[in-house]
C-alpha cells in the first residue's frame, strides 16, 4: 500500500495537540491522541510518534535526551520555529485548521467565547475572533503546564482555575501568549495576585516542564 504523505495541515493539528499535552501523556492510549488520530485518519501510534518528533525539537526536551525520527523531525522543526517567531499567528491558524477538520467554522467552534461577535465587523471582527481564540488556547496550554492544578493551593477543579498573566496582558504585548508568562491559579489567588497582594517568587513556581513554558 502506498504510504500517505503527511500534509502541513495534519502536522499543524498534531502540533496544536502538542501544545495542550503534558509530555507524560504523549502515547497512543491518551484520549486526546485517539481523538486526533480519528480526526485526521491516522493511527494513534503515528500521532504519538509525531508528538515525540515535536518534543525532540523542543529545546527543553531535546536537552533531556528526547529523540525523534531524524527524517521526520525535519518536517516538525519549521512548524516549531514558526511558533517561536509568531506564536499568535500559528496558534490561531492551528485552531482554524482543527475546526475545519471538525467540520466547523472557527466562530462555531468558539461560539461561547464569541457570543457577541456579530456586533463587530471587518478587520475589528477578525482581530476579536483571533484574540479570543488565542486567549482560550493560552489558558489550555498554561493549565496543561501545571497539570490542571493551582500552582499554590493545588486545587484541580478546572472551572475554578485561571491562566493568570505574570506580566499583565495590557503591559507586555510581546508576552501575551507566551506560556512562561502564564501561571495556573485558582480564582481567589488570581485576584490576590492581580491586586499585588501576593507575587514574590510566583514566576518561579514549578510547571510541568517544556521549552514552551520557559520561553
Any overview of this molecule?
The chain is mainly alpha-helical and 215 residues long. It folds into 2 domains: 8-85, no CATH class; 107-213, no CATH class. Helices cover 51% and strands 5% of the residues. It has 9 helices and 2 strands, in the order H-H-H-H-H-H-H-H-E-E-H. The protein has a two-stranded antiparallel sheet. Helix 1 packs antiparallel against helix 2. It starts with 7 loop residues before the first helix and ends in a 21-residue tail after the last helix. Mean pLDDT is 87; it is low at 208-215.
Strand content: under 5%
| CA gyration radius, whole angstroms | 18 Å
Structural class, from secondary structure content? mainly alpha
Major sheet: order of its strands?
Answer: 1-2
Measured distance between first and last alpha carbons = 42 Å
- List unreliable stretches of 5+ residues: 208-215
Overall mean pLDDT:
87
| Count of domains | 2
Please estimate the helix content. 40-55%
Q: H/E order of the elements?
A: HHHHHHHHEEH
**How many H/I helical runs?**
9
What is the tally of beta strands?
A: 2
Sketch the major β-sheet. Answer: 2 strands, antiparallel
Amino acid at each position: 500500500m502506498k504510504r500517505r504523505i503527511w500534509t502541513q495541515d495534519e502536522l499543524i493539528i498534531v502540533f496544536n495537540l502538542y501544545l495542550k499535552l503534558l509530555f507524560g501523556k504523549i502515547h497512543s492510549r491518551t484520549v486526546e491522541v485517539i481523538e486526533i488520530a480519528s480526526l485526521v485518519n491516522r493511527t494513534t501510534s503515528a500521532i504519538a510518534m509525531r508528538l515525540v518528533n515535536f518534543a525532540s525539537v523542543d529545546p527543553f526536551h531535546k536537552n533531556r535526551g528526547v529523540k525523534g525520527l531524524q527524517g521526520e523531525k525535519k518536517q516538525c522543526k519549521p512548524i516549531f520555529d514558526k511558533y517561536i517567531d509568531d506564536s499568535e499567528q500559528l496558534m490561531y491558524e492551528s485552531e482554524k485548521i482543527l475546526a475545519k477538520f471538525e467540520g466547523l467554522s472557527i466562530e462555531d467552534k468558539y461560539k461561547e467565547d464569541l457570543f457577541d461577535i456579530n456586533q463587530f465587523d471587518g478587520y475589528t471582527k477578525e482581530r476579536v475572533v483571533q484574540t479570543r481564540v488565542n486567549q482560550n488556547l493560552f489558558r489550555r496550554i498554561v493549565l496543561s503546564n501545571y497539570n490542571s492544578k493551582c500552582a499554590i493551593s493545588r486545587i484541580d477543579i478546572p472551572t475554578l482555575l485561571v491562566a493568570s498573566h505574570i506580566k499583565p496582558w495590557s503591559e507586555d504585548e510581546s508576552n501575551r501568549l507566551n506560556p512562561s508568562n502564564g501561571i495556573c491559579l485558582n480564582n481567589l489567588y488570581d485576584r490576590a495576585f492581580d491586586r499585588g497582594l501576593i507575587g514574590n517568587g510566583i514566576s518561579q513556581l514549578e510547571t510541568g516542564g517544556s521549552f514552551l513554558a520557559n520561553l
